[in-house]
Specification:
The complex is a heterodimer. Chain A is of the alpha/beta class. Chain A contains twelve helices and 13 strands. In chain A, helix 8 crosses helix 9. Chain A is globular, with a radius of gyration of 27 Å. Chain B has a five-stranded antiparallel beta sheet with strand order 1-2-4-5-3, with helices on both faces. Chain B has a five-stranded antiparallel beta sheet with strand order 6-7-9-10-8, with helices on both faces. Chain B has a two-stranded antiparallel ribbon with strand order 11-12. In chain B, a hairpin with a 5-residue loop joins strand 4 and strand 5. Classes of the chains: A alpha/beta, B alpha+beta. Chains A and B meet through helix 1 and strand 1 of A and helix 1, helix 11 and helix 15 of B.
């Protein structure tokens, strides 16, 4: 056996390897159904769940006839009742000619009933299964998950994809209004924290049912106990500090103004005082005036002074509203417990057991410093008095 | 069985002893006789009754007592030169020679003939060689020696702009099929006395003149020696193009990458010679070979050195990027759409899936159909006359491509992907062949093993490239960390590159002594310019 002979044998063996094994794990694109949304609802039987899948319907376009796409809904919804999620999917797989492909799942939606029962035990599969992505949005439906997944969207062919885009664009301003699977699992792992999940409600618009974000659901342990409406979500977001630019409005006697706060600098200090633990919050931000109504006959300086004061008051009100609400529910939605643990790990070991008693009594020291830095394109409104030169 | 047969063939071809071809010239090895008639008869019988063999008999001397003959091949010689510088002086020479003793061959050569290159010979083999390569042979009655007078002149192509390597900025001359013209073009560029041009003849039947050009002290002697031995051992009857030589001297004959560089431009060859490479010029071919060749040379073009360094560097990086596009984009597309759909962004996945829906073939087959039909179109476009080629590419590319998509045979994204790779492959002309082969190999690997297959293929390619050598020089040389980096992925400004490539050059390493940045204009010049401006 010489050198060349050996080489030729090697090549033949390599080629045979390919041909005999064939295309292992080969999945042509036209043999998979792409799942875009996954919903979990409470079933009649307590041990079981109603699994809903939104599967996109890919319409073949022969050549360049693109007209066929976009007429009617381009997805369909499948349902199964089973005790596990993957076994439910296996059931569904037998109903369609293609294999179910979960990698591109956009949203995981829990029905309200199921959320009241608890969601923890169904989280396991999302963490364990390879096909599930940790970046998927987790949502809570105001009614059932199926309602959301069957709803349509005006601008998107596929409502689950539309929903995920909606949450993404919302999360650029209010990060609190979004919850990824990854964040949810880490929140759930923190012992004292109550995670919050965005709530989606289905509204009837022009004969179509469309989904919209309506607030945040509060989970104590893993069970639904209450929710924050959009105004409280703002109060929550101020303290979480993970917002880029949030707008709010002030309605006082003299007039009305719409403003936004950016450049937020937040210092969140858990402290152990003589009377027990308390939270000290230092909030700084730049205010931009977006709209002014009223304030007739007043000078700009005066208006700004009034607005600045009103702003601080409004902010304080919103923050405390939300905080008090969470104290009423005894749900540490901010993760203050974890904050204490980070700053005072040894002391917190003792506090941890009593956190449920401590939290409703927790005090907050709030200091807000705001500055009006931006008035938009103009300084004065049409009906405001010209500012005198001396004051300028 | 088949493989055993093939391997036996290869081995026996390697072991076969060199055939002694001197036997062919055995007759020509005879010495010339003193009788003119006999000699002429012998030449006639050796060359045959060819129409272009001309024998011109003449008489000279005071009383026309001496007789002689000129033998040449019509069409290879300059007839005016024969008349003016051979016949006229010898026939009109009225010097008194009484007998053959007084008139010697060297006497004729020195005092009668008005030709530059004249050699004496008494062997038929040399006389026939001379005659067939355009010299005129003078035989005289009563002498056992003949004169071979160089009178070469034949039809040849002018020096024109090369078709293969066009430049926007830079010299436009190209080599021709004539060896002498080609060596002239090189000499004109390198006027150093150290430029050596060694001649040799290859091919039993064609006796092609081959010239090795290098600069002494810059080219490595061991490489020159290696090249000489390889050229000497070429045992072939015909060399019709430098491509014949390339196949005999390359080091990895079974690799898809070429280890011998080539160019049609004298400026490119001159620069390679100046870097320490050796050029092989073969008569009858406008393509001059250079050895050793590094992989990175495929990405260097002549124009890189004629435009400013920044843009040259960008285009060179783009060429390397295009190599990867040309080889890997189709395989990656196949791997993604058949194995790793999770890697495609969701929106793009829907677009791709929509196009995929309803097409009957698997992705590999689809891609192979497109790639192979593209190769067919390319080949047809090359072989056809230029005017027809245009029409064909329109029919092939536009009509067939469009119809295939609208008939639902192939998906539109696949057409785009294949088209991009095809165009990208053309950016690196000297690797086009290896790219199209690699692409198909990678496509098959990707279709069978997905991303893993591509990884294996890429590693295999790297291993192959890294193990190859060209005349003992690592093929991947300039890619490694060394000073050759200054002219590999990017091209540094010319004034920074003060040394010749590390692996190739011999003793004379410095291009210049020190790095001197271009001189800044001093204040006086500035002031002067300002004054002119003010006026």
């Amino acid at each position: 056996m010489n050198k060349y002979n050996r080489r030729i044998y090697l090549i033949i063996i390599l080629i045979i390897n390919f041909i005999l094994t064939g295309c292992w794990d080969n999945n042509e694109l036209d043999t998979i159904s792409i799942v875009t949304g996954l919903g979990i609802d409470a079933a009649e039987n307590d041990d079981e769940i109603d699994l809903t899948l939104q599967v996109s319907k890919i319409k073949g376009t022969t050549g360049y006839e693109k007209g066929a796409v976009g007429q009617g809904s381009s997805f369909f919804v499948m349902e199964a009742t089973d005790s596990g999620i993957l076994s439910g999917i296996d059931k569904l797989e037998k109903q369609i000619p293609r294999s179910i492909f979960l990698h591109h799942n956009q949203v995981i939606i829990f029905g309200k009933e199921q959320a009241k029962k608890g969601i923890k035990k169904y989280m396991d599969v999302f963490i364990r299964e390879h096909q599930m992505r940790m970046e998927t949005w987790v949502l809570l439906s105001d009614s059932t998950a199926k309602d959301i997944l069957t709803s349509t969207m005006e601008q998107e062919e596929n409502s689950a994809i539309g929903l995920s885009k909606m949450i993404y664009s919302e999360s650029r301003d209010y990060e609190s209004l979004s919850m990824r699977l990854m964040d949810l699992t880490s929140r759930m792992m923190e012992e004292t924290t109550s995670p919050v999940i965005p709530i989606v409600t289905v509204k009837n618009k022009n004969g179509n049912s469309e989904a919209e974000i309506s607030g945040l659901a509060i989970l104590k342990e893993d069970k639904y106990i209450g929710e924050l409406d959009l105004e409280k979500v703002r109060g929550y977001s101020w303290i979480m500090g993970n917002c880029r630019e949030i707008s709010f409005n002030i309605n006082i006697e003299d007039g009305y103004s719409d403003m936004s706060i950016s450049n937020i600098k937040l210092k969140n200090k858990p402290k152990l005082g003589a009377d027990g633990p308390f939270i000290s919050i230092d909030f700084k931000g730049d205010v931009a005036i977006r709209e002014i109504q009223g304030f007739e006959g007043m000078k700009t300086d005066e208006i700004f002074a009034i607005l600045q004061k009103a702003c601080v008051e409004q902010l304080e009100k919103e923050i405390l509203d939300c905080f008090n609400y969470s104290k009423d529910l005894n749900a540490d939605i901010y993760g203050f417990g974890t904050e204490f643990y980070r700053k005072h790990p040894k002391d917190f070991e003792k506090l941890k057991e009593y956190w449920d008693e401590i939290y409703p009594e927790l005090d907050m020291e709030l200091e807000i410093n705001l500055e009006i830095t931006d008035t938009g394109k103009v300084l004065n409104s049409l009906y405001m008095e010209e500012q005198s030169d001396e004051n300028r | 069985m088949v493989f055993r047969y093939i391997s036996r063939k290869i081995v026996s071809a390697q072991n076969r002893n060199k055939v002694n071809h001197d036997a062919i010239l055995e007759n020509g090895g005879l010495a010339i006789s003193k009788n003119l008639e006999e000699n002429l008869d012998f030449i006639k019988s050796a060359i045959g009754e060819s129409q272009d063999l001309k024998i011109h008999e003449f008489a000279f001397g005071e009383h026309n007592q001496f007789s002689g003959a000129l033998v040449y091949i019509d069409g290879l010689v300059n007839t005016i030169q024969i008349t003016e510088s051979i016949l006229k002086p010898i026939v009109s020479n009225r010097k008194k020679y009484k007998s053959l003793e007084e008139l010697t061959i060297s006497e004729i050569r020195r005092s009668i003939l008005c030709s530059g290159s004249v050699t004496e010979s008494n062997l038929f083999s040399q006389i026939l060689d001379g005659c067939l390569s355009g010299s005129t042979v003078m035989l005289l009655d009563g002498f056992s020696k003949g004169l071979i007078i160089n009178t070469e002149m034949w039809e040849k192509r002018d020096v024109t702009e090369p078709q293969t390597e066009t430049v926007i900025r830079g010299p436009r001359e190209g080599f021709t099929e004539n060896l002498r013209t080609n060596t002239t073009l090189l000499r004109r560029r390198i006027k150093s006395p150290k430029l050596r041009m060694d001649h040799m003849t290859i091919g039993h039947k064609t006796a092609t003149n081959v010239c090795i050009a290098y600069i002494e002290g810059v080219a490595r002697p061991e490489i020159i020696e290696l090249l000489r031995t390889r050229l000497d051992s070429i045992d072939v009857d015909a060399v019709l193009d430098s491509g014949y030589i390339e196949e005999y001297i390359e080091e990895s004959p079974f690799s898809i990458f070429s280890t011998v560089g080539y160019s049609e431009k004298p400026d490119v060859i001159a620069s390679k010679i100046l870097e320490g490479r050796i050029a092989i010029i073969s008569d009858g071919s406008p393509f001059v070979l250079t050895v050793p060749m590094l992989f990175i040379e495929s990405f260097q073009t002549a124009e890189d050195y004629y435009v400013r360094a920044f843009y040259a560097s960008i285009t060179r990086l783009m060429r390397i990027f295009c190599f990867f596009i040309a080889v890997f984009v189709v395989p990656i597309f196949i791997a993604l759409s058949t194995y790793h759909q999770e890697l495609i962004p969701t929106t793009l996945l829907f677009t791709v899936a929509t196009a995929r829906e309803g097409t009957p073939f698997p992705a590999l087959f689809e891609a192979l159909v497109l790639v192979i039909s593209f190769e067919i179109l390319r080949e047809a476009g090359l072989r056809l006359p230029r005017a027809v080629g245009q029409a064909m590419s329109i029919v092939g590319a536009l009509i067939v491509g469009d119809a295939a998509v609208s008939a639902g045979l192939v998906g539109a994204p696949m057409v785009i992907v294949v088209a991009i790779t095809a165009v990208a492959g053309f950016i690196i002309p000297s690797q086009t062949d290896s790219i199209s082969m690699l692409r198909i190999i990678m496509m098959i690997l990707a279709a069978f093993l997905g991303g893993f297959g591509i990884a294996i293929g890429f590693l295999g390619m790297l291993v192959q490239l890294a193990t190859m050598t060209s005349f003992g020089v690592p093929y991947f040389g300039a890619v490694m960390f060394s000073r050759d980096q200054q002219d590999s992925f990017i091209r540094m400004p010319l004034w920074i590159m003060e040394k010749r490539p590390k692996n190739i050059v011999y003793k004379d390493k410095q291009r210049k002594e020190v790095i001197i940045p271009p001189v800044k204009s001093d204040e006086n010049v500035k002031q002067k310019g300002q004054d002119n401006f003010d006026e």
